[in-house]
Automatic annotation (TrEMBL):
Origin species: Thiolapillus brandeum
GO molecular function: 3'-tRNA processing endoribonuclease activity
InterPro entries given in the database record: AtsA-like_MBL-fold (IPR044094), Metallo-B-lactamas (IPR001279), RibonucZ/Hydroxyglut_hydro (IPR036866)
Coiled-coil spans in chain: none
Record PANTHER family: ZINC PHOSPHODIESTERASE ELAC PROTEIN 1
Record key words, sorted: Hydrolase, Signal
Residue intervals of the Metallo-beta-lactamase domain: 59-270
CDD domains (UniProt xref): arylsulfatase_AtsA-like_MBL-fold
Name of a matching Pfam family: Lactamase_B_2
Hydrolase recorded as keyword: yes
Signal peptide (residue range): 1-21
Designated name of the protein: Beta-lactamase domain protein
Length: 305
């Protein structure tokens, strides 16, 4: 009886600490949209890119599609504050601006190494390591004059971490845990292309990114479980056929995903012509499953968890 009372007393004392430790310190974290469209040239918006801020500093870039680097500058972010780039995959509309970030960063005071994380490759796309070397390798790279950023002879070094991705590797993997930022990745189905989704945790807040995926692996609900924000790509309408429905999620699936994961806010992005004009229909389909806040994001919008 005495031991039971002691344990109960300890539980009461520790409960507030546990709640506080698990809580999201939303004032310290924000998500900014650097690009909210796909690869089309049609409405003056940038291709895919997202920026995570922690304690007033830009810390993580997720994807670097065309135009996103200009929005990075417009956001007031500093390249020298970044800890890492996360790439969902290496399609052009998710990665083409990366060398522009690096070149622009040459004129800053950055001295700390920079890490990029992305999936492995196949016949259609490079791995994270290959992406970096094909850009900047001496003699053989696309921009060999920038090789000092990967050979260690410059002011800082860019390193790559390749994460295996396939239908045979569906377990979640911790890929980064440093400076108050924790990143977990999982393979997602993007037709035959290696692709990753990410869960980023900082200051007790969780922001998850689907990247481009169809949902056929069904790995995202567990990864995004309890997220304060889920960033989901809405590139196709419900009646999409052909290759599009092998590459992207239908709105109905997005709603099911958000509901199953129990996310607190759903941000829709990566809109294309075929989906942007059907927002009312998309929202109606999502509402059949998910009743939380839903936002169709625009470039440079900023959200707190």
């Amino acid at each position: 009886m005495r031991i039971d009372r002691l344990m109960l007393g300890l539980a009461v004392l520790l409960a507030p600490l546990s709640i506080q430790a698990a809580g999201c310190e939303s004032g310290r974290v924000s998500l900014q949209m650097l690009g909210t469209r796909g690869p089309e040239l049609w409405d003056a918006r940038a291709s895919t890119g997202y920026l995570l801020w922690l304690d007033g500093k830009a810390r993580v870039v997720v994807d670097a599609g065309p135009g996103s680097v200009q929005n990075f500058e417009a956001s007031g972010a500093r390249y020298e504050d970044l800890s890492l780039f996360l790439f969902s995959h290496f399609h052009i509309d998710h990665s083409a601006d990366f060398p522009a970030y690096v070149k622009g960063g040459f004129f800053t005071g950055r001295k700390d190494d920079l890490l990029i994380i992305g999936p492995d490759g196949n016949d259609y796309l490079p791995s994270a390591d290959e992406f970096l070397t094909r850009l900047f390798a001496p003699r053989t790279g696309l921009y060999p004059y920038m090789s000092s950023f990967i050979d260690g002879s410059g002011a800082y070094r860019i390193r790559a971490k390749t994460v295996p991705s396939s239908y045979k590797l569906l377990d979640e993997r911790r890929v980064y845990d440093h400076n108050g930022i924790r990143v977990t990745a999982v393979s997602v189905h993007h037709a035959v292309l290696p692709a990753l989704a990410y869960r980023v945790e900082m200051a007790g807040c969780v922001i998850s990114f689907t990247g481009d995926m169809s949902g056929r692996f069904h790995t995202m609900p567990d990864l995004a479980k309890g997220s304060d924000i889920l960033v989901a790509h809405n590139a196709i309408p419900e009646d999409q056929t052909g290759a599009g429905q092998l590459l992207h999620m239908r709105p109905g699936y997005i709603g099911k995903l958000a509901a199953e994961a129990g996310v607190r806010k759903l941000i829709l992005t990566h809109l294309m012509k075929r989906s942007a004009g059907r927002r009312d229909e998309t929202l109606k389909l999502i509402r059949q499953h998910y009743q939380g806040p839903v936002v169709f994001a625009d470039d440079l919008q900023r959200f707190q968890p």
